[in-house]
Amino acid sequence: MGIHQKSQKIDVAQVKQLSRLEGEALAKKEARDKELDAIIKGEDQRLLLVIGPCSSDNEEAVLEYARRLSALQEKVKDRVFMVMRVYTAKPRTNGDGYKGLIHQPDTSKLPDLINGIAAVRNLHYRVITETGLTTADEMLYPSNLPLVDDLVSYHAIGARSVEDQEHRFVASGIDVPTGMKNPTSGNLNIMFNAIYAAQNQQNFIYHDAEVDTDGNPLAHAILRGATNEHGENEPNFYYDILIKAIKKYRDMGLENPFILIDTNHDNSGKNYLDQIRIVRQTLINRDWNEQINQYVRGFMIESYLEDGRQDKPEVFGKSITDPCLGWDKTEKLIEEIYQTLGKDSFEDFLNN
């Protein structure tokens, strides 16, 4: 085989002793996890924001962002609940070069996955313990889930993973909210079939053993736009598509119907400023239609300290993967969301 072992077999139990939550920090995380569960189940009507950098490439920049986000969360906590994106395996789209913190904990050095695992755990741990926020990550590699499952409060299955059987089956064994994105083709049936698989019990081989899963009733939809055969972006946050997605939820009888709008990627064409417009239009659609208001209850937003992106990590807090909203625009957008949610009606929103 062309696979060559470079290290000793990883002892997952030993890894979990690194950056392990205990005491007050663990209790706070568990309390916030219960709040998040209640939002997905519709028992808590606050709007969910899964928000933060496209990829967490720099520990200190990510922590500075987390401190600012935590202070803002406290101001808007009665209407908005935020889980911070701490994406640690997020590569550049074409797979060239940087492949995320887990591969390259220091962007100035060669890949180092063993130290990358420690860096990943340490970053989630520091965000949780130093700011009180809870974190989201993308499950790019299902086999890596046991390395972080005690720290991460929200998992996302990406557009290129959602068709993969192992991702679907492992998602059925996760006990926290798990967002399933539509594939890059935009085919909603594929996404809903993934949600169905994740919500049901599964039996498969995982980590060299036969396993059964309980099913994950908190698996739900993320609409992230599509790319057509001509390479053009086709957003899917529009009113008519939301109605179709809601009908699909109902027809399939899935549990805890919940739709999150990804404001970047193919919805924005990676024009990061369009995230603001997408949020505004979706809030208007929620006010126009009670079904949309009931089902579409969150946004995924890519945001960092500085606007845009860069090829090399030269500017502190500026993305080296997809472009992000800078902090000033992020703060204004969240304040706008908060104020809009406080309007008694759409007419009040227009008049003020």
TrEMBL record:
MF annotations from Gene Ontology: 3-deoxy-7-phosphoheptulonate synthase activity
Keyword Zinc-finger among record annotations: no
All residue ranges annotated as the DAHP synthetase I/KDSA domain in the record: 35-333
Coiled-coil positions: none
Keyword annotations of the record: Amino-acid biosynthesis, Aromatic amino acid biosynthesis, Transferase
GO terms, biological process: amino acid biosynthetic process; aromatic amino acid family biosynthetic process; chorismate biosynthetic process
InterPro entries the record matches: Aldolase_TIM, DAHP1/KDSA, DAHP_synth_1
GO cellular component: cytoplasm
Catalysed reactions, semicolon-separated: D-erythrose 4-phosphate + phosphoenolpyruvate + H2O = 7-phospho-2-dehydro-3-deoxy-D-arabino-heptonate + phosphate
Source species, domain of life: Bacteria
EC code(s) of this entry: 2.5.1.54
Entry's family note: Belongs to the class-I DAHP synthase family.
Its job: Stereospecific condensation of phosphoenolpyruvate (PEP) and D-erythrose-4-phosphate (E4P) giving rise to 3-deoxy-D-arabino-heptulosonate-7-phosphate (DAHP).
Name listed for the protein in its UniProt record: Phospho-2-dehydro-3-deoxyheptonate aldolase
Lineage start: Bacteria, Bacillati, Bacillota, Bacilli, Lactobacillales
Gene, per the UniProt record: aroF_2
